[in-house]
Specification:
It is built from 15 helices and 25 strands. It has helices at about 5-10, 30-45, 65-75, 90-100, 110-120, 135-140, 175-190, 210-220, 235-240, 250-255, 280-290, 365-370, 410-420, 455-465, 490-500; strands spanning about 20, 30, 55-60, 80, 105, 125, 155-165, 170-175, 200, 225, 245-250, 270-275, 295-300, 305-310, 325, 330-335, 350-355, 360, 380-385, 390-395, 400-405, 405-410, 425-435, 440-445, 475. The chain has three domains: about 5-150, ANL, N-terminal domain (Rossmann fold, 3-Layer(aba) Sandwich); about 200-395, 3-Layer(aba) Sandwich (Rossmann fold), CATH 3.40.50.12780; about 400-500, GMP Synthetase, Chain A, domain 3 (2-Layer Sandwich). The strands form six sheets. Strands 2-1-10-9-11-12-13-14-15 form a nine-stranded mixed β-sheet. The protein starts with a helix and ends in a 6-residue tail after the last helix. It is α/β, with parallel strands linked by helices. It binds malonyl-coenzyme A and adenosine monophosphate. Malonyl-coenzyme A binds near residues 209, 210, 277 and 437.
């Protein structure tokens, strides 16, 4: 095949008059209409000087046009780098500079803030608004509706997704065509997706879950999506009867269950509910089955690996577990100190190997070597256990990470900022249980004995520097941080102390 990713996901739908995207206003975009738009966009990428292998950074609201930019990158051989719409200008600056992106496409409302960002790193800038208008779409409007697909190999890069790290610096996970395709093929088969499926899609499309799992699977199966700009409870309830499947983070499920309109009748035509990106409470699993008769299928994945494990389609979907390694994926539990495989039943670090595992972190060979072994096993940083039936459970994390509503937050990034504030000697950032987001962020500050700290001024600094979802929902002041004999901050003690701030 000339370009496996484009040909398999997109190209073969050319000429199909079948629905691809059902939009909230009642409009439908067919596969062919979507691919015509894709071709125009691919011409526009080329006209703006992007060559195969170049990176394109995209920070825009979810829309059919935003998705068509992903498809256009595949067709033109450009590496797609989607960014969370919540990121501040400073955060975007890092991604554009680090990736060497040649073009940044952003919402028109952000042009003033992001033009200097693009300029300083030598990138071009274009706009795409939530309604599909903007300079990028304008430029594409008179372009041809077919484009000579650029030849690519399966080992070529398809996308960069940035993932934060324990040092506070984000790392660009390089994903190849094989990484994306192999996983999409496996999942579509495993979860029995067909052209008849209508996926209720309310996830963002700048992360693995909404883009590579939900969208790629639908594309490979030839089905369609009810494409909502974001999770909105009223919309979810209104659209559910038209859908056959849904994928969501646990917050989607707790929010649905909190509404009396969400009934068994509403889910009558649904065949599959998938949860992932964060732990699903066993209680949510049980309540969901009680309410709807459906058992949620929980799976486990990561930016660097796409999906690793899944509960079975047929057979027992065991609450509190993430099921079995997917076909083609090897998973082992190892001793964090030695890397040796542990006996069945013991808790250790989860390592995975397979065609789904990424190629490494962009321009960070040392980081890559720390996490990706020479034999191909990737050290996930998650702690797990395999039961006697082979079900994998995630029992904790060997990395200092908070997952809030499915978004990953690395405490170090916030601590670095807090430590820098006037009146602060040092800080510790922890995750505590939250009824809606699963976990949320608390910042613990130790005063330096001068003035303050001024909590309002600090909150203002955080607002300017970091995306909203990373903001501590509470800042507390302590005389000192609990430390062990090695001098390491004992975050478990802080979590115990502040654990009921939002649930108590
Ligand atoms: C929004 N806010 C969040 C937040 N999402 N704060 C913390 N954590 C989050 N996840 C902010 C909003 O900006 C707002 O700020 C306030 O919190 C309340 O917003 P809301 O209206 O209640 O939130 P909403 O917009 O409805 O978003 C919640 C959500 C969304 C859960 C629907 O976050 C979401 O779609 N999450 C999915 C994330 C995802 O796709 N993860 C997959 C990663 S891939 P203010 O200013 O109003 O207070 C991966 C691999 C794998 O992990 O295995 O899948
Ligand atoms: P990300 O880096 O955003 O891709 O997030 C990946 C992390 O999300 C994993 O390393 C896990 O810690 C977590 N995760 C994903 N799916 C699950 C799940 N089903 N249960 C618990 N944690 C999960």
């Amino acid at each position: 095949m000339a370009n496996p990713l484009y040909d398999t996901l997109f190209g073969r739908h050319r000429g199909r008059d079948t629905p691809f995207l059902h939009l909230p206003d009642g409009a439908t975009l067919t596969h062919d209409a979507f691919l015509q738009m894709t071709a125009r966009f691919a011409h526009q990428l080329t006209a703006l000087g992007l060559a195969p292998g170049d990176r394109l950074a995209l920070q825009v609201e979810k829309s059919p046009q935003a998705l068509a930019i992903y498809a256009a990158c595949a067709q033109a051989g450009v590496v797609f780098l989607p960014l969370n719409t919540g990121y501040t200008g400073d955060e975007v600056r890092y991604f554009v500079e680090n990736s060497g992106a040649k073009l940044l496409i952003c919402d028109g409302a952000k042009t003033t803030a992001l033009t200097p960002v693009a300029k300083d790193s030598g990138a071009g800038i274009a706009t795409l608004n939530a309604d599909g208008s903007g300079s990028f779409a304008d430029g594409a409007a008179d372009k041809a509706t077919s484009f000579d697909t650029v030849a690519r190999e399966e080992s070529d890069l398809a996308a960069f997704l940035y993932t934060s790290g324990t040092t506070g610096r984000s790392k660009g996970a390089m994903l190849t065509q094989t990484n994306l395709l192999s996983n999409a093929q496996t999942l579509a088969e495993h979860w029995r997706f067909t052209a008849e499926d209508v996926l209720l899609h309310a996830l963002p499309i700048f992360h693995t879950h909404g883009l590579f799992v939900a969208t790629n699977i639908t594309l490979i199966a030839g089905g369609s999506m009810i494409f909502l700009p974001k999770f909105d409870l009223d919309q979810m309830i209104a659209q559910m009867p038209r859908a056959t499947a849904m994928m969501g983070v646990p917050t989607f499920y707790t929010r649905l269950l909190s509404d009396d309109r969400f009934t068994a009748d509403l889910t009558r035509d649904m065949r599959l509910f998938v949860s992932g990106s964060a732990p699903l409470l066993a209680e949510t699993h049980v309540q969901f089955e009680k309410r709807t008769g459906h058992r949620i299928l929980e799976r486990y994945g990561m930016t660097e690996t796409n999906m690793n494990t899944s509960n079975p389609y047929d057979g027992e979907r065991r609450a509190g577990t993430v099921g079995f390694p997917l076909p083609g994926v090897e998973l082992k539990i190892t001793d964090p100190a030695t890397g040796d495989t542990l006996p069945q039943g013991e808790i250790g670090q989860i390592e995975v190997r397979g065609p789904n595992v990424f190629k490494g972190y962009w321009k960070m060979p040392e980081k890559t070597a720390e996490e990706l072994r020479e034999d191909g096993f990737f050290i996930t940083g998650d702690l797990g256990q395999i039961d006697e039936d082979g079900y994998v459970s995630i029992v904790g994390r060997n990395k200092d990470l908070i997952i809030s509503g499915g978004y990953n937050i690395y405490p170090k990034e916030i601590e670095v900022l807090l430590d820098d504030q006037p009146g602060v000697l040092e800080s510790a950032v922890i995750g505590v249980p939250h009824p809606d987001f699963g976990e949320t962020v608390v910042g613990v500050l130790v005063p330096d004995g001068t003035s303050g700290p001024d909590l309002d001024a600090i909150a203002q600094q955080i607002t300017e520097a970091l995306a909203r979802f990373k903001h501590p929902r509470k800042l507390v002041v302590l005389d000192e941080l609990p430390r062990n004999t090695m001098g390491k901050v004992q975050k478990n003690i802080l979590r115990d102390r502040f654990g009921d701030l939002f649930t108590g």
